[in-house]
Amino acid sequence: MSALPKRIIKETERLVSDPVPGIQATPNEDNLRYFQVKMRGPIQSPYENGIFKLELFLPDEYPMEPPKVRFLTKIYHPNIDRLGRICLDVLKNNWSPALQIRTILLSIQALLATPNPNDPLANDVAEEWIKNEPQAIKTAKEWTKLYAMNEVMD
Amino acid sequence: MGNVPGKLDEQGINTINANVPNANTSSNSTHTNSTSTNSGSSHVRNTRSSTISSFTGNSTRSSRQRRATSLVGSFINGATGRSRSDTAAINKNSTKKKNPKERDLLKEEHDKKLVVKYYENVDGGYLAPYGCHHREKLDYDADVVRKLIIDRKLAPFYIPLEDFDTNWTDQEIIKIFDSLTLHQAYIQDPEEFDDIPLGNDIEDYDEIISLVSMDQSLSKRDQKKLKSMIFKARLYRRRINWQEMENEIYFNGKLEAKNKNLPSDDLKLALYKYNGMECPICFLYFPGPMNISRCCLQPICTECFVQIKRHDPHFSHDEQNSEQQEDDPHLLISEPARCPYCATPNFGITYTPPIDRCTGIHGYAPKSYVSKGNQQGKTATETDAEHPTVTSDEDDNTSPSANVEPPSRRTSVSANDPSVVTSDMIRPDWESRLNKARLRLARKSANATAIHMSNRLVERRNINNDNAKDLEEEMIKHAIRLSLSDGN
C-alpha cells in the first residue's frame, strides 16, 4: 500500500466539509481508502425513502483507475446484481481521472432514478422490467421497504 | 472453434502482419528453423521455456504434449510460409521479445531515465516525474518525453507543493521548497515484495537465476514467476538507491552557495508564488504555465498527463455477436485515449513556455535567474554568458507580480496540429502492443484447436512410429482437412 496521495486527503476533507445532499461517505479509520457510504433513494423512484449502504474502495492507481463501488443493501434494479455490483459506464471504461468520489456517487444515485434494462447486469430483473414494468417497480418498492428502511443518515 | 486454423491461415496472421508497423522484411530466418524443431506453442514461449529448462536441466514435457504443441508451431509456420514478408513480420515480433534478459535490461534502462536529476532542469522543473502517481503507469517513452520537455513543447515535471497559502511570506515559501527532495519518498518495503529474496548483489543480474534454482520444488511456471518477482523487487530497490544518490548530489549541491544549476530564491518565488496553480486531477500545487488540453482548454500537470493512455486492447462493447468474437484476433481494438475533462477522443495538450524564465537546458543557469523587480541591483556577471537571459531585454520597471503568463490559446486545436502533444505520441508503441495482443490471441486459439485435433488423431491412430516428423506432417494434413470440412 502506497502513501495516501494528497488528492485522496483533499477529496475526503471536501466530502466532509461540503457533503453531497442525500449522500454520506465516511472513510474507514484503519484504511483511508475504504469508505462506508449511505445513499438516500431518489424521490419519485421506487427507492424513495430507502437508505442504501454501499462500500467504496480507492485502488492504488486511483484516480487513474476508477473507485470500486458495491451496494451492500439488497436492491431490485436491472443494473445492480445480487452481489451489489453496479453496471455503470463511468465505473469502467468511461472513467476519467477528472471524476471524483462525489461525482461517482451522484452518478450512482442518478442510476437509481433511471434504471436501464437494455444494458442489464441482473438479467432476470431486466427481463421483468421490460416485460412488466409496473410489477418490477412494485417489487423494487417492496425490496426497498424490506431491506432499506433500517438505516438512518447520521 | 473447429475452423480457427483455417481462419488463422487465411485472414488472421495475414492481416495481423499487414498491421505490423515497419515490418522488417530482412529479419532473420533462424527463428523459423528453430521453431520447427522446438516444442513450444509459439516462438516466444519456445525461447522462454527452453531457457528455463536449461536452468534446471530437466524437461518434463510428455511426448503427447510435444506433438500437440509442435503442431501449432507448424501451423503458424505453415501459414506464414506462404508469404515471405509475413514470416519476417512474425519473426520480427518474436526476436524483439525473445531474450528475457534483454527485456529486463530494457526495463532497467527505462527506470534509469525516470530518476530525477537536479542538473537536468528546464525552466525550474525536471525531466523525470516527481512520483505523485502509482509507478505502474510510468511506461511512457522516456526519451520522447524528455525531448518534448527540453523543446518546451510539454511542461517540465516540477516539484509540487501539497498546499499553498497566499498568506505565506517569501521566506516561508523558500523554506518549504528547500525542504523538499527531487522525488516523493519511496515506500521502503512495499508489501508486494514481502517474501521475495533479493540476494547478495542486486546489481548482479545473473544471481537471480541461482536464487530461483535454490528451490527445486518449484514448477517451471512458478520459477518464471519468482524470477520476474525477484527482478521487479530488485529493480524497485535499485530505483530507490539511484534516486537517493541523486537526492544526495542535490543536497550537496545546495551546500555550495555558487552552484549554478540550483534555482535562485527569485526563481523559487517566480515558480510558486507568482505562477502556481492546483492541477485539477492530482490536486497538487504546481508552477505554471501548465499544459492545456487541446480540446477544452483545461489545465493538466505533466505528472498527470503522462499517466493518461489507451486502454489495453479489448473487444468492442457494441458488437452484437459477443460469443463469436472472443477468439477472433482482428476484432481486438485499441482506441486513442480520451480527454479526462470532456471525453474528446485523441487526447492532446499544448504548452506555451514561460516567457520570463528560460532556465536550465537550452537556457541560462537557474541560479542566475533574477526577477524583473530585483534586476537593477544585480550585476551582469551573474547571468550565464553563453546563454544571455531572456529577461535582460525586458522592461525593468515591471514588478514581480507582473510575471504574466504568455497569452493563452482561446480555441481548441486539432490533434494533428504541430503544437499538440498527444497521448499516443508519448506511447508510440501502442500499435505494436495491439499487434502483440492479436498474435497472442491467434496463437491461443490455434493452440486450443490443435490440442483438440491432435487428441482426436491420437485416439484414432496407434502410435508406434519412430519417425515423428512424418506423423506430424500427416497430422497437419488431417487437421487442415478437418478445419476445411468443419463448415468453412
Automatic annotation (TrEMBL), chain A:
It is an enzyme of class 2 (transferase). PROSITE patterns: UBC_1, UBC_2. SMART domains: UBCc. InterPro entries: UBC, UBQ-conjugating_AS, UBQ-conjugating_enzyme/RWD. Residues 3-149 form the UBC core domain. It comes from the Eukaryota. Pfam families: UQ_con. Its EC number is 2.3.2.23. GO terms for molecular function: ATP binding; ubiquitin conjugating enzyme activity. The keyword Nucleotidyltransferase does not apply. The active site is at 87 (glycyl thioester intermediate). Keywords: ATP-binding, Nucleotide-binding, Transferase, Ubl conjugation pathway. SUPFAM superfamilies: UBC-like. The keyword Aminoacyl-tRNA synthetase does not apply. Belongs to the ubiquitin-conjugating enzyme family. PANTHER family: UBIQUITIN-CONJUGATING ENZYME E2 (PTHR24068). This is E2 ubiquitin-conjugating enzyme. It comes from Saccharomycodes ludwigii.
TrEMBL record, chain B:
GO terms for cellular component: cytoplasm. InterPro entries: Sip5/DA2. Coiled coil: none annotated. Residues 43-58, 80-93, 371-382, 409-422 have a biased composition (Polar residues). Belongs to the SIP5 family. This is Related to Protein SIP5. Residues 17-102, 369-424 are annotated as: Disordered. Residues 22-42 have a biased composition (Low complexity).
